[in-house]
Records
---
Amino acid sequence: MIEGLAALYIFMLAGFTGFEIISKVPVILHTPLMSGSNFVHGIVLVGAMIALGIAENPTQQVIGFIAVLLAAGNAVGGYVVTERMLEMFKASGKKGAAGEKK
Amino acid sequence: MNILIQATYFLAAALFILGLKQMSSPVTARRGIHWAGVGMMLATLVTFLAPELSDNPQAFTNYILIIIAIAIGGGYAWVTGKKVAMTDMPQMIAMYNGMGGGAAATIAAVELLKAQGEVAAGAEPAGLLGALGLQSPALVPANISEAMGTDITILAILGAMIGTIAFSGSIIAWAKLDGRLNTSKLLPKQQLINLVLALVMVGFGVAVFFTGDLMPIVVFFALALILGVFITVPVGGADMPVIISLFNALTGLAVGFEGYVLGNAAMIIAGTVVGSAGTLLTHLMAKAMNRSVSSVFFSGFGTTQVASAGAVEGGGSMKEIQGQDVGIMMAYASQVVIIPGYGMAVAQAQHKVWELTQLLTEKGVKVKFAIHPVAGRMPGHMNVLLAEAGVPYDLIYDMEDINADFQNTTVTLVIGANDVVNPAAKNDPSSPLFGMPILNAEQSDNVIVIKRGRGTGFSGVENPLFLLDNTRMLFGDGQKAVNELIQAVKEL
């Protein structure tokens, strides 16, 4: 599906993309963004589901089960925490904008 | 079906990148996390349709197991994530990150064990058939790398190593920030032990590659677990955000590597983006503290602590002041700078601080907030809390923007901050904080420190600022103390 060289290009381009995204972030968003990127690597859930899905014996099933459990925690927790943090920015953004109008 | 799955992964990867991009601006940040959330939801749902899952003879059991695992893991994270106080955010990020690292490592474990199983299964008939000359040896994988392919094996082992270290390290970071683990000393010559441990671990990683035995795999994972613990335990104080950010980047990388192992483009892209973004973020944080990432990673914090604590003691004593007096002082000041720290967060004093700010502004006092890059326990942590209280952006200043302004400041109010205003960082080479840029609070006419007690800050380092002639201490809970100030200003 993803062969060696193509994967290498994907690694490179994705690496530059991540670099580019972060380089323009104001300090105030560093924590939310760290949390947001923490959520994004929750995509490991997809891999964990496959790992458990292809498990053929109890040992693999137990380990795969742990993988899905942990990955789901990463994805859901990352989302909830980031959402809560950014919610505050919305509220303060409104007030800040109102303050500017004065 | 395969087309649908691939298209969805493609869409999810695009949504992640766009989402992160939007998260980098306060205006679009909320939309960003929602977009990324949609991407995650779609990718998760479509994975249930994957042929690898339905073709497995164990498919039914595995589907049930997947749903149960998601319900437990997701449910736990949902409840804790909703419940956690804003002040405890950093350790929750560490916790969820550790879970992701652990997931990447366990995926690698499943893959390696499958390959090991193939080798072991191949070895037995090969003994019999091989002896009879009926089977060509090339058909039976002689070791794990032959069973999985060279490139996949290397990345699986690397991802396993990184993910496992990020897992145990993040859990330790969580325990330390949550106050469950207070020790920073583990073993003498910790650095040397870590180095030896790392080399032995890499050795076993190589052994996993070249053999088909179970033992190297188990030892390899165990060593990586221990190494993560050993690396993180000595890290303390202001270095914690750096190490969490680093583990976040490492988890991303591990996810990317395991994405290659599974041939999953969405994982490769999302993981690598996070890996590089996290690395840059870690670097920015470490730079703000004038510490290199390697020194955070490999050296314990506070090893020279004893010497500096002794040097400070004879220097003077703390002078107390009452809230009433501080209120008067501030009301007649021309400029007040407020330096919030973790203590403000703990006391939930941010709303009161904003109330005080509004009162002072009405009286014509210029009020500014000075935020150290690592104030609280993570960059931006204080900004989040102040934003929660409703403080507008234009009152909040970064360290570089405000440091020259302290000379023109009548009163600097330090609420629950300590290490970020410690002048020892500038003039005491024996201090563990030495070299970290700090807010020049000591340059203002008066410094008022609101503090719960006489103890040291999170890093355990004494603060000579508290002993200076222009410093007064207002002991008490942050919220109560600020309340006193509000009353004092109101009464004028």
Note: Residues 89-132 of chain B form the longest helix (44 residues).
---
Amino acid sequence: MRTEYEKLREMGKSCHSKHSLKHRRQNTLGSCDWLSLLPDPLLLHILSFLPIEDVIRTSLLSRRWRYLWMFVPSIDFRCRPYYKADKTIVAFMDRLLLYHEAMKVQKFCIQFCYRDEYADNVDSWIHTMLRRNVEELYLDFFHSCCPYYLHEKALYKLPRSFFHCRSLITLSLRSCDLNLPSSVCLSSLKTLCLCKFELTSDMLKNLIFGCPLLEDLMLKNCNTNSDLIILAAHPHLKRLKIHDVYVDLGYEINIHAPGLLMLEYSGCLKRRNYDCIKTLKSLESAKFECEEYDWCLDTNHENYCFLYPKLLGYLHVKDLKLDSWFIQALSVMEVLNSSAQHITATCMEMKTGLKKWELPGIAYLLKNSPSLGTLTVSIKPSEKIKLDDFQKKYDFDERKYWKVKFFSLQHLKKVIIHNFMGGDEYLDSGQSAGKFIRDHDNEFQFVKFLLKNVVALQIMIVKTSREDTFRELAKKEPLLLKITQRILSFPRASPNVRLWVS
Amino acid sequence: MASTSNSTSSKIITLRSSDGEVFEVEESVALESNLIRRMMEDDCANNIIPLPNVTAPIFYLVIEHCKKHAEMKDNKEKKKELRSQGEELLKSDPHTYSNLMEAVNYLDIKSLMDLTAQWLADFLKGKSPRLIRELLKIKNDFTPEEEAEILERNRWAFD
């Protein structure tokens, strides 16, 4: 068997070398069928990265492939378009599972618009998967186009036995009825993602308690109409991600997780009691990505901005990642000269533009981070907070902003700037390099400020934008050279700094 | 490849490829391979570890990718970059690709197994059987009757 296979391989080699040049010109991959020569386990592994429709289609390639799909360890079916809720999908899954023979299913992923009449079918799929010791399960039964969302009874009700599965390692659920039993035992579960659920604090506590190995918990748009209380009694829970967008104002949040290392918060910060973050003593890294698009409606936005520096005060982390919204809110605080918070981070990442009303926020962060060692700035355009009156009142000259700032960043050793001169939404193609550089003066001023003030700087890496407009311009003119020359001409506080521009 | 002498001193492991070339690899990189890990645990790796199924150029590629993969942890941009590099390799040198995949399988390196499989999956995704056959030179050895039968049987998947 083995020698036969090796013979085939040899054949593969020789036919490859003979024709390779000729075929390289075409879009073919090689000149002989090397793929079919790979052993079954490897082919199945490749197939496991494909949606199930693509996997089944390979049965038509050749005899070698005819039955292979039946043993693929992963079934990934996502209905496109999503709202297509017809019987053919259900029939498709029924038949698929009838033929599918892999004894062990690694991953089962299904996304489609559920209807009441499919309950028995879905039940049988899930039972089949549980019997085959599925490790990763993704169930998503809902779409906003689906009018059934309003009726509780139209939600798929998970079978009670579901919550006693020992093989599950990753579980992601969206829009179904949890139907949670009083005792949960998902003894291998490490990652749990819940999307669009209303969970009472007891339910959530019970669920977390029943997953003794749970390390990652993700809650997306959960409890939009109620308090979100996360109580993790055991210290295994390491990472918590919360995505809150459509929350009604004023509901509370409370997190009790003694071993939590990482907190990621995205969406809007409209809940009450963010003070609870203070109690997360073991936290090492935190990330905030805000989408406060309805700020302009909030008349009291200046007061609202006070939350952000307070949050910084609560977070005793080494690793901090913030985005433009957060930084713009800090800008308000900086301009108002309001109380500074001590920031403990040694490593900070900012995903922000370097537009006028982001500058004071960046200054606020740098000024208050005495231990900062590594700074990463990923330049990304973002929507402006609408605070026109405020901004008129406290106007300043952005071109001179960094020139008048002095503060020492004693420990900062490494600065990385991604997407330098990128993030332009509108760019006319006929622009010259000179004007392009002038338009991005804020970026240069920021680099200049860092080089001039950071005494211990060892390395600064500036990665220019990979966007099309930048590349096109760089083709016509020596843009990179001009950028490098300009940056190299800036005075440096640290004699040994290495500069990389790419 | 000088060994660094810090407290967590990274040990250097010596490996020999099938064509006799000797590689010195940092332990942390070498241990990505479950095969090498097992060999070291079984203590049959005191001196040079032989890798009879991997040639030097392929092993070099494996190490390169191991390093890149370690670097890209939590870095989405790099991940994308690494994922898109696969297409280039597939198109320019599919023979090396299949050798790499087999080597990675033999060495039992989970992260690279997934990466190399993803490369090909990305290539196959959304393509019709006819196009895949053409691009990969797969010979259609079905009789017309057989082909019709598969189409009929799996019609539910081809619609």
Note: Chain B has nine helices and three strands.
---
Amino acid sequence: MMCNIILILHPYFILFTQMNKKKAHLILEDDTAFQGFSFGSSTSVSGEVVFNTAMTGYPESLTDPSYRGQILVLTYPLIGNYGVPPMTTEGGLPRFFESDKIHIKALVASDYSFEYSHWNAVKSLDEWLREFDIPAIYGVDTRQITKIIRERGVMLGKVVIEGNDEPKEFDDPNKKNLVAEVSCKEIENYGNGDIKIILVDCGCKYNIIRCLVNRGATVIRTPWDYDFTKLDYDGIMLSNGPGDPAMCGATVAHIKKAIATGKPIFGICLGNQLLSLAAGATTYKLKYGHRSHNQPVLEVGTNHAVITSQNHGYAVDTATLDKEWESCFVNLNDGTNEGIRHKFQPFFSVQFHPEASSGPNDTEYLFDKFIALCKR
Amino acid sequence: MQEIKKVLLLGSGALKIGEAGEFDYSGSQALKALKEEGICTVLINPNIATIQTSENIADKVYFLPVTPDFVEQVIDKERPEGILLAFGGQTALNCGVKLYQSGVLEKYNVRVLGTPVQAIIDTEDRKKFVGKLDEIAVKTIKSEAVTTVEDAKRVAKELGYPIIIRAAYTLGGLGSGFCDNEAELDGLAAKAFTYSPQILVEKSLKGWKEVEYEVVRDQYDNCITVCNMENFDPLGIHTGESIVVAPSQTLTNSEYHKLRRLAIKIIRHIGIIGECNVQYALDPASEDYRVIEVNARLSRSSALASKATGYPLAFVAAKLGLGYGLYELKNTVTQATTACFEPALDYVVCKIPRWDLGKFKGVSRELGSSMKSVGEVMAIGRNFEEAIQKGLRMIGQGMHGFVANKDLGADNIDEQLSNPTDKRIFVIANAFHKGYNVDTIHSLTKIDKWFLHKLDGLYRLDQTLKGFNKVEDIPLDLLREAKQKGFSDFQIARIIYGENIDVNARMDLVRTYRKAQGIVPVVKQIDTLAAEYPAMTNYLYLTYNGTVHDVDFACDNQSVAVLGSGAYRIGSSVEFDWCSVNAVNTLRQNGLKAIMINYNPETVSTDYDMCDRLYFDELTLERVLDITDLEQPRGVIVSVGGQIPNNLATRLDSHHIPILGTSADNIDKAEDRHRFSQMCDDLGIDQPRWKELTSLDDIYDFADKVGFPLLIRPSYVLSGAAMNVVSNRDELEGFLTLATNVSKQHPVVVTEFIENAKEIEMDAVARDGEVLIYAISEHVEFAGVHSGDATMVFPAQKLYVETMRRIKKIARQVAKGLNITGPFNMQLMAKNNDIKVIECNLRASRSFPFVSKVLKVNFIDIATKVMLGLEPDIPHKSAFDLDYVGIKAPQFSFSRLQKADPILGVEMASTGEVGCIGEDFDEAILKAMLSVGYTIPQKSVLLSTGDSRSKADMLPTVKILQKKGYKIYATRGTADFLAPNGINATVLHWPDSDQKPNTLDYIKERKIDLVVNIPKNLSKTELSNDYTIRRSAIDFNIPLITNARLASAFINAFCRIERSEISIKSREEYR
């Protein structure tokens, strides 16, 4: 082959020819295909294709259980720049990640930095993905993919790596009980503060635990379907999580029971949807969801606007809420629900992520509010 | 609250280093925002070349100095309810603070809209600022003064090592140094105390990252950060001198949001309403940080952030100043979502400064904490390599990207890496060539390794490509990768085929081949939301990192592309932006779609609101062809953006791109000295004698024939780069070696230098060789001062009627000879009605906005219509009808350029200009001189008036000075000349003499209010003689004039007119 001759002439050549670059394809449900190159693992996979417009925070996002079953397209094109931090633990939790593993099915980027640079990095994104057997693809037109999803709605897709068989079927994660997959299997405790908070783990991000523990709480993390009402507690935190809230009937039933006791409840993301279901409302799937760090949200009835981090595909239909409930936050861009509250009782929830990580922490004050309610 | 019906906006005045076109953009946006609310707007800005001072932007415009006294007079006259201080840079801010402190604002009941003045004062005063941030436990950079080694150790311990210590009250860093531990401190502190009784101990932030945030806050306390930016160059280099990328590249989520959170905390605590900029130092080895400074106003960074994100910061800030909440405003890009959000980018931008240090005598090329760059470019790509290579081409200093450039020489690479100059990035390329690796370069530069790895990748790709002899041999994936990483066709051609062939022809070959292989760029939108929402945006760039265009191309013959001016530089600045924007306006008014191509973030032409499609991209042949391939415009306008588009004419024409207006061949005929001279000879038009250099002997022969002084310059350059005057044979020889290095393709030209001739400019528009309208201006200074540095009078006041008639005749002949259709400019000199043509440019000139606004006839509008084949309205208006005089005066930035000799010559040195209107010459020149920073002397003037001729010329003026009661100081020769003429001047001795009284002491002690220092000639020895006088005048902020005719004009004016007699009239009142 001609290339071999050149290889001898130029030692650097190997780095730059496509010879050692493995081709990879992203194939969408509607048969649109994008050709790029592989990094991470060489497994071919299928999942739901979603995009996120955040410009930082891939170690946090990739370990966010809400991404379970999803092929994540990052619209910010330069990925991997600052490598991946170490698995240092603090208070029983990995300090720099949102769970113990990568949850996405595959990663899609425009430009991958093979060389990274950061004082806190111990490995490259490529190495990290390989560790968890997660495939990734770069060199594709991520903006075009985003536009397709925006116009036609989220769809299923496959990431196929050269030399590996294409998955036969498109795998729809929403048909599975993803929450059951990512929730803890047994009760775990964190911190030793005076206030006892039940954290209903539907796929919780660890920063929720950190935000509670840092405010003097003992966090009792329970499996998603555990009947936490029988425990002794001061407040309930309903976590974020992946997939369709309708899969979590067991959790909703427990929430209804908790509502009756009147102790404070705070829900985040999926937690907002579950609390809404318990409050009689229905949920629906958004065309392409909110996944970004820049979602503007207005606190209903005030001039108070906040920038929020979001990651959800379903939303609450506020028109269907029982009459003692009301909307408390609304999205300034598309008017969708961003949070509900009970008119008289200490129950509230938000669709966005006050714990951030990744994203802006403008709304972390909500944890203070929740803790204050629990102290009462 | 009182309803706001009329608002005064303070502009930034002339462009200067540190305060450039960005404030035309900010101010224009703010005025637009106010206009939308039905508010009457009044603008004070003497910068006549700006968009904001044009028709239909502000309701009333005053071409007056932005100083408290003038602003007060305007307030008294206009009685506005509100004032905006944040849109005119430091000039407007300082003026506003003074008006507040002196009680003027209160007196006239003028409310400051947006950020309260107290908040501005809190950020401007270093001590207050540190105290303010201490209150909220935000870290700032602090230094502590100590008098003992023990105290130094204590402070060092508190601050944490490494620290830097500086001996107080010493110059040049004597007794300063870094200490990594207590042992080192012991030694160094002891040494420092031998220089000074006091030392300053400060935390060393050497090598820390520099990161900026643009923060917005409304009156409801809602905050957003619109953009963050990371400096490629670590701390120590002024952010205006740094390559900057947006968004940050090497910050983790935690770092990004930590700094964001702090920025919001700061803006809330200070109480900004509108926009501010927060600059941080960030430790590269932890999350430790320091706040460097906060700018409580729109800034260069905010203009950059606006262009980088598409978020109109100035527009939004103006609305917030009126009391809107962020969430009540719309995102003007999507037209559907709210302005209360933080843009998500799906590209990376790279800002690169443009320096012109070669234009100044004596200035140091090292970069540091003060700004020296005169402009900047912004490049957009979908990876860093693409963006930076685009950007390095855009700065227009003969570079083609990171690699494949001319060799800079490999001397002192280590030294040049650790002490950066304006060439730093290319020194890095050189270092890779010499085998340096990323680690070594990092240790010398402290530039983050991520950036260096990317640059290393470009170098390696260059090496890989070198292995091929033909473009057809390059594997397609590799060729595509090269294009994706920003390699131009020119770079590829030069890498593959070497330097010794016709690179332009090979470049076409690369282009043709890759297009045949389907390797073409795609057009992507900047939409603020990374494609999350459909956007109505026409803000576009090209990239090879994508496969699908975001937009459709109508190709309906209804569009015209206007090529903009590129980076601001000495000789090409806001005036060409005015020309570009006006061409675009005319296109749109005539039902055509205007496509703008430009890449300067400081401009109004790159505001996507101004045109139908904005391509924020390169003005190279390759990129313009890429765009015309897609858009298929009816034609391209190359005559409104200065020299960059003008230089593309011939090659665009050879690619069959229709050039609107004068043909490419005729443009070349005007640019090419030989062709132009031939034409002049044929038409019987006189030119100064000149010759092209082929050998030294020929030059000497020529010198013998015409005599010294001689002007030497290379052809095809703007604003006289590497141009010089030589007074004798030695200087001639010395200079030739320098000048020939500039360009191999274009030979050196030697011209006779005519002294004491008047210089005249003619700006005009012609159609099919017939002059339709013209404006004749004269220079106050004699020919020899670059036209960009000269003080220009329009209408010309002191020309013979005969001279005027001859000039018109010449212009008509030239217009016919070049069959001009469109704008053109001629520079001529006249001595006793004997007229010579210096040069002719078949494009708009720097003076087009000036003459258009003084005459109130838009030359660009007429020129654009003519180029489109439309019938323009030519007003029957003559300069003779004007009852007023316009004067354009240059603004210099010598105070920013340490050690530079503030002398005028054939090289242009001014960074900006003003244009003022007065009832007569004296009033106009007074307004203009006060606008560029001169002040009317209170008591005393120092004279050193050059050769006997200029001494004699200035005598009547000096007599007036004496009569007016000014105390006159003079150097020995001047005093000796003045004494027998009845003028009693006190002799001050030369700076190099020990004798008292000494000029230097008097300047330092500010006993002098105006320095007039006229060099006898431009020879090196003469210049170095009184350099110290000139430089100290600049360093001690004493007005300096170095030209006898300008000095006379200014002195006569202030002696004849009292400050109080200067009329306060708006543009509209001069009819």
Note: Chain A has ten helices and 21 strands.
